[in-house]
Input
Amino acid sequence: MISFEFFGILILSVVLYWIIPRQSLRNLLLILASFAFIYLLDQWSIAVVAGLSLVSYFFGILIEKHPKRSLIHACGVVFVLGVLIAFKYLGFLSGIFNSLAGFINALPQFEIRKLLLPLGISYIVFKHISYLTDIKWGLIKPGRFIDFLLYSSLFTIFVAGPIERFENFKPQVEQSRLPFSWCNIDYGFMRIVFGMFKKLILADWIGYFISPIWENLHHYGQWIRLLALLGYSFQIYFDFAGYSDIAIGSSRLFGIKIMENFNNPYLAPNISQFWRRWHISLSNWIKDYLFFPLSKISNKRLWQIFFVPVIAMALCGLWHGASWHFMLWGLWHGLGLSALQIWNQYKRKHKQLGKATKSKWFNYAGIAMNFCFVTLGWWWFR
Amino acid sequence: MKEKLIEFIRDEFLDEPDTEITENTKLISSGMIDSFSLVSLQAFIQQEFGKRIPAPRITAESFDTVKQMIEVIKQF
Output
């Protein structure tokens, strides 16, 4: 994202964008700029973005008009998830199958070559699932295809999010003309500068010091390893928060407001609050389209308290990458959320404990404990 | 509707049931109720008022106070 291509296209398109008088032509310019950016990074991804957008939009129209909207919605979601699985998880799944086949000799072995992973596929698929589901729930209309294509491909948020919702995006780009404002340019520029500082100065410098340790962990003692883990905890935060700042700032240069993605997550007093502050667009997505639907499967306490958070967060982990270590990271957080739920219920039964936990010192202890928990979790993520 | 919501929230989610809740008390952003509780709250609203509120409407911004909850419920 921090590349000559990105900033070259950004500067050129911002200038042209504000010269063009009509919003529909501006949107077209942004689509062309986005496709140019994607083409420069990975030609193959253009076909995936265009094809997926076309099919998802078609499903969106069908969901809106067809009486069996739940069925059409299910087909649409299966299709977009199928695309994600085919490109991202087929190699991983075939590995699991082959391991099982190793135990059971009667099963054949499969050799599946890993397909080329299209750029931004995880983000675009989540955006499309929210689009289709929000239409089904009656929260949005399918809108115009050009607006949806822009939503799918906008280069400022294409590679690293945030996972914006069509509901917030559409009203901004379907106006007859977004008004020019120096405040937006000023704000956008400042966010980009802050983002660059977080990414290039803080994250990359921390990385410069800790990378040699991570590459030769067995050469170092446990305290140095812990220091490397602590460093990684800050590196990944500044890295990702920096990218989000650049994405939000770049979008604002076009007058488009994108949702915030981070809000001092390491100051959260518990793991539930952490997920309301870390990668907010993803955690909101998980809450809306995974956590709530999963919770409705069963009213049993074990399901609600244990299985729902663990399954939701394991899938959240897998979304980050097709590998066991991402899933373990997700499981770690799922177990944390589950433990918090049990603790909250215990507090409700013991009122004196509830009063004691209201003190500010308990809050500080919560922040410290939560930071340690999250930092330990990064061990699997890396 | 207001009384029923306040009673449910106080009984189900609060550590101290004596805590005073008004229609403007911030519940989600203050950490009084968490994501887990929101699922039960959604189920309660559906059961009690016959309104199914989609999850994207249940956020700290739009569902933070009882007053906001009533406004959202009325939209559906």
